[in-house]
Amino acid sequence: MCRAPGRRIGRVTLPGMMVLVVCGVVLMMSVVLWAVQRQFVYFPDPSPVRPAGEVIDGARDVTLHTHDGLELTAWFVPAAADGRGMAVLVAPGNGGNRASRAGLARALSARGLAVLLLDYRGYGGNPGRPTEDGLAADATAAAEALHELGYPPERTIYLGESLGTGVVAALQARRPPAGIVLRSPFTELTDVGAHHYPFLPVRLLLRDRFPVVAHLRSSTVPVTVVYGERDSVVPTRLSERVADEVGVLHERVVIPGADHNDPVMFGPTVADAVLRLARLVAPPSAP
Question: Fewer Cβ atoms within 10 Å of its own Cβ: the N or the C terminal residue of the chain?
Answer without folding.
Answer: N
